[in-house]
Automatic annotation (TrEMBL):
Gene3D superfamilies: P-loop containing nucleotide triphosphate hydrolases. Coiled coil: none annotated. InterPro entries: AAA+_ATPase, ABC_transporter-like_ATP-bd, ABC_transporter-like_CS, BCAA_Transport_ATP-bd_LivF, P-loop_NTPase. Belongs to the ABC transporter superfamily. The lineage of its organism: Archaea, Methanobacteriati, Methanobacteriota, candidate division MSBL1. Pfam families: ABC_tran (PF00005). This is ABC transporter domain-containing protein.
């Protein structure tokens, strides 16, 4: 069953395009990874899928509905959680206040908070500390973990491993695989160690200079990752 279809999307900033004719499909419970060099347009693609940026052309279909014109808040209400590459938390707010923002409008927010603190006790221990005092790994636990407990239909995670030590990146990848195993669809951008993440992904897309230049199973792309990233 199809969850997300990015169909022939072109988008950019201030009237200039930076991605052209991008088509990506994510089925229910699939982990799909987007890789490519710096400036390829990976973040722009995620922004369009998350409703942060309106495409100039093409359409976004989510569970059969055309959501192209929806904004980020409306996408969230539909069941899409977008975890941006940067500024995915509010540094001057406490961990607990960040969760108030992450879980806003959800009826089961107390349950989500409890589940998150059970899964990541360190966040419970630091709940009254400002988020700026967290380590990079703890920040990603907050971002990715709060998406996990919300159990949306789709998570878009832009570079959830950037600047993390390998062992912490492995833990975050485990959380992403846990989401997938619960039937949550995940579109993830991975630049750090793409080979490792592609190997664990169902499918992957390679993007270069604003276009998708290759797609295949995670394993197929993993074998070619080193060559493709040049
Ligand atoms: N807010 C913006 N305004 C203008 N141009 C932008 C903006 N954000 C990105 N761009 C440009 O769009 C192009 C694609 O950028 P994008 O951030 O989507 O690439 P990326 O693949 O995510 O790169 P990275 O691996 O560095 O995160 C780049 O040329 C970039 O300079
Ligand atoms: Mg990016």
């Amino acid at each position: 069953m199809e969850c997300l279809n990015i169909n022939n999307v072109s988008a950019g900033y201030g009237g200039g395009l930076v991605i052209w004719g991008v088509t990506i499909r994510v089925e229910k419970g699939e982990l799909v990874t987007l890789v490519g060099p710096n400036g390829a347009g990976k973040t722009t693609t995620c922004r369009v899928a998350g409703g942060i940026l309106q495409p100039a052309k093409g359409e976004i279909i989510f569970k059969g509905d055309n959501v192209t014109k929806l904004n980020a808040e409306e996408m969230y209400d539909k069941g899409i959680v977008y975890i941006p590459q940067e500024e995915n938390i509010f540094p001057s707010l406490t961990v607990s206040e960040n969760l108030d923002v992450a879980f806003q409008g959800k009826e089961n927010k107390d349950e989500c908070r409890k589940k998150l603190f059970e899964r990541f006790p360190v966040l419970g221990e630091r709940s009254t500390q400002k988020a700026e005092s967290l380590s990079g790994g703890e920040i990603q636990m907050l971002g990715v973990g709060s998406a996990l407990v919300l159990e949306p239909d789709l998570v878009i995670a832009d570079e959830p491993f950037s600047k993390l030590a390998p062992s912490i990146a492995e833990q975050i990848l485990d959380v992403i695989l846990e989401m997938k195993n619960r039937g949550i669809s995940v579109l993830m951008v991975s630049e750090t160690n793409p080979e490792r993440t592609l190997k664990k992904s169902d499918r992957g897309y390679f993007m270069k200079a604003g276009e998708i230049t290759k797609q295949g199973s995670g394993k197929e792309l993993a074998d070619e990752a080193a060559e493709l990233m040049i």
